[in-house]
Amino acid sequence: MTAQKESTHTTDPHAAGLVASLLPCPEPVQFVDATGRRVPGGEGGRGYAQPTAEQLVETWRRMVVGRRFDVQSTALTKQGRLAVYPSSRGQEACQVGAVMALRPDDWVFPTYRDSVALITRDIDPVETLTLLRGDAHCGYDPIARHTAAQCTPLATQLIHAAGVAHGEARRGRDTVALGFIGDGATSEGDFHEALNFAAVFNAPVVFFVQNNKYAISVPLSKQTKAPSLAYKGIGYGVPSEQVDGNDAMAVLAVVNHAVQRARDGGGPFLIEAHTYRLDAHTNADDATRYREADEVTDWLTRDPIARLEAWLRSEGLVDDARVEEVTAEAEAFATALRDRMNADPQVDPMSLFDNVFAEPTPELVEQRDMVAQEIAAEQEEQE
Description:
It is a single chain. It contains 14 helices and 7 strands. By secondary structure, it is α/β, with parallel strands linked by helices. Strands 1-2-3-7-6 form a 5-stranded parallel beta sheet, with helices on both faces. The mean pLDDT is about 95.
């Protein structure tokens, strides 16, 4: 028998270093704990910069307004003013924090659950709820707002985000795209295709996973065996991070870093934010069928708004008067939304044919003429 040759394989230090640079922190990045205290070393040694006081105060204010908007929208659903509403109560640090790291000319690609992110973009709240009211596929101008229509398919918006980011880079612009996604959608092929495309073409896009622990009723343990969803970026060469999604300061710090990195030509970045959906998947869902009340109660103690407010108070950045002022602002916002949503919308039936094709097809023209004739005939009868 011949002796087995000794292996000559050696680990490539460059490859090992590259893999290490893609890995997320072993534990989610956390700047502020559930009581509002600063966590020393919680950023995992990554050197994420603490957001400015101005950015944090404004984030807190928008989170308070966003929470009140969300609660009001849920009530509107119960009153029959909305067809459906996917609440994001408890996820405000994710939605507001991610958007606050962007410029107005950056692009956002939201899911159906990201209405709070839309109003943080200063999109009219009634226009935000147009889709969920059932009046139109989108109530705002996506191009003017640099915000794509809310996406009901689970992950298709990420391919759009990667494509737009790549297109903007080819035009020589430093625009960044941010695509929201839920934990369940990481099982979709579109998620993986988007990451691969973005990595290959070095697209300036940030993929932001809101891991709220359930894909409707399916718990995370039934979705993946990965130690963290953030690890899914490694195979595509996309650097990744996991963050405490109920810590607005940490979310801002990580997204600030990811956005600036993409803007500077560093390419895509994957963020997993660990958070929790306090309410049901939508008003049509009974969450008590698949999760225990104690689980929800535990997450209530990690409230992102109370956490950031406690830290801001400890730093003297907000006080009782400021809290009362913002609470009143949020209540006025909800009241105005309720009054406007209680008025029946004036819908033009002919708008059905707008924006279907750049050049209407003969069939569409025929259908449009038929509807116009029916409307004219009805008006003649009424006269």
